[in-house]
Amino acid sequence: MSIFEYNGSALVAMVGKNCFAIASDRRLGVQLQTIATDFQKIYKIHDKLYIGLGGLATDAQTLYQRLVFRHKLYQLREERNMKPETFASLVSALLYEKRFGPYFCQPVIAGLGDDNMPFICTMDSIGAKELAKDFVVSGTASESLYGACESMYKPDMEPEELFETISQALLASVDRDCLSGWGGHVLLVSPAEVQERTLKGRMD
């Protein structure tokens, strides 16, 4: 079993019309044994920027703490929040720095830029970025997430439709992966507000 499959995860970020949604499952497991059913995998950097961390849970928490530290230093020096593109480069550099003993994480980054244009990207454990204009996925359920998102996504969705699409894609995918599941956690971010919702899924 790969170390990336040790805890299990499903992460997806999707772009709408001047908004984006990022969603994750809620299961923390040790292989097939479930440890927790309310585990946080999406972390806030600032109001318009979020990172989802799939992979080894302990590395995800360590990496998030290092990223918060770096972002606070940036805020002190620059007196503004980091742009999503800049933050993606920071995460990439931080992961590549540790390439000979990497953090076993596959991040999904989603944010709104200056002109409220959504930005999403994902990368592997050594920081090779993959940019997309529609959706990005990560975690053990990524194969089924690709399929579900591919069939459900359409461009320029309004926030409510985007929420419905990402929720259905996530729930359909985790049902096909025994290492992730137990409901979902969705963040819907538009220029005006941030909505946080919890999904109920199969509990087996």
Automatic annotation (TrEMBL):
Primary subcellular site in the record, as a coarse category: cytoplasm
Source species, domain of life: Eukaryota
GO biological process per UniProt: proteasome-mediated ubiquitin-dependent protein catabolic process
Compartments where found: Cytoplasm; Nucleus
Pfam entry (one): Proteasome
Keywords: Cytoplasm, Hydrolase, Nucleus, Proteasome
Single GO cellular component term: cytoplasm
GO-annotated molecular function: hydrolase activity
Oligomer and partners: The 26S proteasome consists of a 20S proteasome core and two 19S regulatory subunits. The 20S proteasome core is composed of 28 subunits that are arranged in four stacked rings, resulting in a barrel-shaped structure. The two end rings are each formed by seven alpha subunits, and the two central rings are each formed by seven beta subunits. The catalytic chamber with the active sites is on the inside of the barrel.
Entry similarity comment: Belongs to the peptidase T1B family.
Function of the protein: Non-catalytic component of the proteasome, a multicatalytic proteinase complex which is characterized by its ability to cleave peptides with Arg, Phe, Tyr, Leu, and Glu adjacent to the leaving group at neutral or slightly basic pH. The proteasome has an ATP-dependent proteolytic activity.
Name of the molecule in the record: Proteasome subunit beta
Native organism taxonomy: Eukaryota, Viridiplantae, Streptophyta, Embryophyta, Tracheophyta
